[in-house]
Task: inverse folding
């Protein structure tokens, strides 16, 4: 059957026609085999041109169109929809890029650019001749999202997901929700307390029936494809019953013989084997730390109804349509001796210091010494030239400055010295910096190559800094406390990046697809990232990313089904001899071995396949093709390009 | 190596630098300053030294005296830290710091300064009562009110006191500044520097003229010249009375000089008094009480001196003697407190300019 293909050559308002002789191009392609009509147009993407193309298709019964214009990144979908509106299959449309790949690139040589345009369009025509109509695969999706990490980002995401009608599984590794936020006390900008915000989120969560909380739970396995994932979750026993109601809890706390470092207070205090991370921690029942409990039985004796030491580790499988990873951060732990950390008593990290402030009553003292002068050393473990952490954690400057404002407010007579490299109090946080300066806080600037030196000076610690702002003069401070302003590193998450196959960057945070345009998506379709597990953020930014991950998850699952791009690999079972080469190179795990009529062949999971084409060249029996890029189409394009152009 | 002293900037606040801790070291003040040079960049360095409390650095700096408080730095400061105000405050701080035997403490510390002034004024009033003669009520004869001997001896005592104290204070300044060996140069170079500073800076106020706002420069220049004229007039009257008591004709010289000089000085001093009262500009927002005392004393000294010159032509005998007494008391106070109030800038600034010139 003779093909009836329409070819449109776009001027792009001069962007193309200034360098490419479009009339000559039209002359050269209008009589190609299969071409029914060829036209030039000033702007192919304009409304009137689109209408003209539709009219052409319908009046002339065209069975394929080629538009030679800009990059498919810009208008592929525009013209696919033109084809669809005219009654063609969208995949019977072929876009040829003669702008980015021709006129712009060869503006110095119009003659050759014209020749190249002719060759490219001929290739496009050949491809259009071989193109087959394709239809997207539609698969049903599971109404459920697993949110992994029960900190502020995860909690906020859970609430929002629940309101869209999706079922939510909130999975937290620790026995208590809230993550790092309750450790902080007053937060900057609003001066609200972290634990109060967490309480608000928790109360919203328990109001909703479609959110299931799992604490002490870790993801062990992950399989399936977008819309249909399966998670294996392992849940630690809490040994405390859900209806915990023990009047003697205070007494138990006193009598429990086990004392371990309290991680919530960064080792400043000890806690018992039975504990709550903080007094108003959620869920409101305590937990027993399985690793450290000696099973002495004191607690069970006092409140037999409230404990159950027969609880075993549980395993369960969850089926969800999408996953949001909100695994959060840990503060960078300075190395032994880094600015005197771990060497001198009076050196703490900012996070430890904030706990110290929270634990202090009335007077701020440490090691029974009243604190009057505090030296904050900035960028500890951040922006390292030689070390691993090249990045800026962007919350720490403001956090340190806000801390000094709180000190001024609470204790008035405390003097703060800020030893910084650069101050990054961006946006509204700048006001805090200004206030701190007005308070009389003293700022000294050092260069990375000349960091401050913390050393012993009698009973005190002395900090020496070559202050750039004072002509690099060496200046000495004798503080009562040195506070190291440390940044964020990703929180230990039990190797989730391996389980989910979500890539991490050099900084070890989860990587998004595109930092600007697709900031919460990962290369795994249906797995999203949010909060500080993706990179350092303050709480505002954390919640922003958490909500955008919800929007992405909802737009994926809301219709109940999922249309998948039909451009995927296809196996010719006749030819396939199962050598396994394709399976080896497939990064998406989309190829499985299957027995078909007593023969082992490769089968493509169309939900996982991205149509990347890696498998095609490694197939020795030429049994694999990519729909929309079949061998016939590619060979035809090569013929089209190679055909001589008459000058 | 110096140690940070956060209390210092609190101390400097008492001298008039209230917002200096707001500084975030952008350096706009130095960039805009028409007087700051590459070898001598201020006010940023002084701001920094104040914030960190590097007292030695400030005590040994000439920078405060090289600043004329154009105020362009304060207008440009993005944090409203008022660096110009700080330089002013540092001048007050240095005046106090360089004073002999801490006499200036009397005039700088709140309540004690009130008593110091009270006692001083009382001394002046008592002195007039004690040393006054029976004045000639028919005709104005100033020397019949206070004898020439009293004026002569009193004048000499005051000027000796003034010279000794001023000399010692300049010596203290020199010691604080710590000229290095390298700067120690011959008499000839000193003389050259002296002539350069005297004509190009003191008399012409060249540096001051670089300020964008010329009103203060003009008023200050007029006040300076007028004051010099009035001062010369007073000296010549006394000298003529002493050397040519009989020669009436020659007295026309100081009279004319006084009358002419009175006009610019009155304009100048009134300008500053009015602007300070009105707080018209940023530069007059804050006046330390030692500024007030200086400006008020000099205002009344000039006003009364000028009146005396005019009254000499009239027959208002009583008013004349009364004004004369008032003038004597004011001048007595002015001279005695010269080294401790804003008046001291008359010696510190040229001396600092001289030292800066030598250092260069």
Result:
């Amino acid at each position: 059957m003779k093909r009836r293909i329409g070819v449109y050559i776009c001027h792009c308002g001069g962007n193309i026609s200034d360098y490419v002789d479009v009339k000559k191009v039209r002359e050269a392609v209008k009589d190609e085999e299969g071409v029914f009509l060829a036209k030039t147009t000033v702007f192919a993407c304009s409304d009137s041109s689109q209408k003209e193309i539709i009219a052409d298709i319908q009046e002339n019964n065209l069975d394929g169109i080629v538009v030679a214009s800009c990059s498919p990144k810009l208008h592929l979908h525009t013209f696919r929809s033109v084809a669809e509106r005219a009654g063609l299959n969208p995949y019977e449309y072929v876009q040829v890029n003669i702008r980015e790949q021709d006129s712009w690139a060869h503006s110095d040589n119009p003659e050759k650019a014209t020749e190249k345009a002719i060759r490219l369009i001929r290739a496009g025509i050949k491809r259009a001749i071989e193109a087959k109509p394709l239809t997207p695969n539609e698969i049903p999706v599971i109404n459920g999202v697993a949110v992994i990490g029960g900190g502020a980002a995860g909690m906020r995401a859970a609430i929002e997901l629940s309101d869209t009608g999706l079922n939510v599984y909130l999975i937290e590794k620790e026995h208590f929700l809230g993550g790092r936020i309750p450790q902080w006390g007053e937060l900057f900008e609003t001066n609200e307390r972290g634990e109060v915000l967490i309480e608000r989120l928790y109360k919203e969560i328990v109001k909703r029936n479609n959110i299931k909380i799992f604490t002490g739970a870790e993801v062990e396995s992950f399989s399936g494809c977008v819309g249909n994932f399966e998670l294996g979750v392992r849940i630690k026993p809490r040994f405390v019953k859900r209806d915990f109601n023990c009047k003697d809890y205070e007494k138990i706390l006193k009598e429990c013989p086990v004392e371990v470092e309290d991680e919530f207070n960064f080792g400043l205090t000890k806690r018992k084997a039975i504990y709550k991370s903080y007094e108003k921690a959620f869920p409101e029942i305590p937990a027993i730390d399985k690793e450290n409990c000696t099973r002495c039985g004191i607690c069970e004796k006092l409140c037999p109804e409230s404990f159950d030491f027969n609880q075993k580790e549980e395993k369960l499988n969850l089926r969800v349509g999408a996953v949001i990873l909100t695994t959060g951060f840990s503060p960078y732990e300075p190395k032994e001796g880094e600015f005197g950390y771990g060497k001198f008593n009076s050196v703490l990290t900012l996070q430890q210091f904030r706990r110290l402030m929270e634990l202090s009553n009335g007077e701020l003292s440490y090691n029974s010494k009243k604190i009057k002068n505090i030296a904050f050393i900035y960028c500890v473990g951040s922006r390292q030239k030689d070390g691993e952490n090249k990045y800026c954690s962007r919350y720490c400057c403001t956090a340190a400055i806000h801390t000094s404002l709180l000190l001024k407010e609470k204790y008035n007579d405390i003097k703060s010295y800020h030893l910084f490299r650069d101050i990054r109090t961006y946006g509204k946080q700048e006001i805090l910096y200004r206030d701190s300066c007005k308070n009389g806080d003293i700022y000294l600037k050092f260069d990375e190559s000349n960091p401050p030196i913390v050393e012993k000076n009698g009973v005190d610690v002395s900090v020496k800094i070559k202050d750039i702002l004072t002509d690099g003069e060496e200046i000495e401070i004798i503080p009562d406390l040195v506070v190291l302003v440390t940044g964020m590193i990703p929180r230990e998450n039990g190797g989730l990046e391996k389980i989910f196959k979500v890539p991490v960057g050099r900084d070890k945070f989860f990587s998004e697809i595109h930092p600007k345009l697709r900031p919460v998506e990962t290369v795994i379709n249906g797995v999203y990232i949010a909060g500080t597990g993706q990179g350092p953020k303050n709480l505002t930014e954390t919640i922003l990313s958490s909500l955008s991950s919800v929007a992405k998850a909802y737009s994926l699952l809301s219709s109940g089904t999922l249309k998948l791009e039909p451009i995927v690999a296809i196996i010719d079972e006749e030819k396939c001899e199962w050598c396994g080469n394709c399976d080896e190179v497939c990064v998406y795990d989309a190829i499985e071995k299957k027995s078909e009529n007593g023969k082992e062949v490769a089968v493509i999971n169309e939900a996982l396949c991205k149509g990347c084409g890696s498998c095609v060249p490694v197939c020795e029996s030429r049994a694999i093709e990519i729909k929309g890029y079949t061998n016939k189409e590619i060979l035809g394009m090569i013929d089209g390009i190679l055909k001589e152009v008459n000058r | 190596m110096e140690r940070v002293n956060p209390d210092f900037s609190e101390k400097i606040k008492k001298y008039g630098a209230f917002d200096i801790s707001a500084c975030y070291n952008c350096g706009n003040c130095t960039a805009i300053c028409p007087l700051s040079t590459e070898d001598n960049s201020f006010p940023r360095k002084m701001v920094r030294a104040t914030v960190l409390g590097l007292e030695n650095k400030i005590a040994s700096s000439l920078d405060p005296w090289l600043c004329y408080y154009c105020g362009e730095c304060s207008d440009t400061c993005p944090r409203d830290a008022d660096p110009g105000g700080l330089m002013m405050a540092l001048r007050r701080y240095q005046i106090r710091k360089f004073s002999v035997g801490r006499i200036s403490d009397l005039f700088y510390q709140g309540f004690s300064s009130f008593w110091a002034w009270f006692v001083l004024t009382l001394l002046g009033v008592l002195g007039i009562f004690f040393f006054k003669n029976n004045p000639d009520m028919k005709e104005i004869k100033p020397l019949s009110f206070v004898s020439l001997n009293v004026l002569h001896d009193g004048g000499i005592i005051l000027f000796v006191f003034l010279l000794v104290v001023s000399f010692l204070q300049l010596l203290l300044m020199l010691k604080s500044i710590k000229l290095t060996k390298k700067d120690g140069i011959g008499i000839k170079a000193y003389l050259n520097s002296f002539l350069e500073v005297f004509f190009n800076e003191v008399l012409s106020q060249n540096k001051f003229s670089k300020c964008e706002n010329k009103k203060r420069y003009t008023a200050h220049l007029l006040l300076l010249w007028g004051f010099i004229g009035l001062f010369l007039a007073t000296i010549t009257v006394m000298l003529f009375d002493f050397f040519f008591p009989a020669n009436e004709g020659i007295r026309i010289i100081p009279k004319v000089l006084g009358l002419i000089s009175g006009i610019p000085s009155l304009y100048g001093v009134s300008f500053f008094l009015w602007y300070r009262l009105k707080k018209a500009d940023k530069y007059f927002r804050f006046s330390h009480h030692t500024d007030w005392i200086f400006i008020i004393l000099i205002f009344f000294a000039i006003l009364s001196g000028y009146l005396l010159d005019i009254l000499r032509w009239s027959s208002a005998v009583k008013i004349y003697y009364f004004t004369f007494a008032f003038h004597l008391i004011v001048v007595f106070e002015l001279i005695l407190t010269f080294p401790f109030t804003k008046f001291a800038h008359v010696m510190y600034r040229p001396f600092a300019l001289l030292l800066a010139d030598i250092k260069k």
Summary: Chain A touches chain B at residues 415, 417, 423, 433-434, 437-445, 464, 467, 469-471, 473-478 (CB under 8 Å). The radius of gyration of chain A is 32 Å.
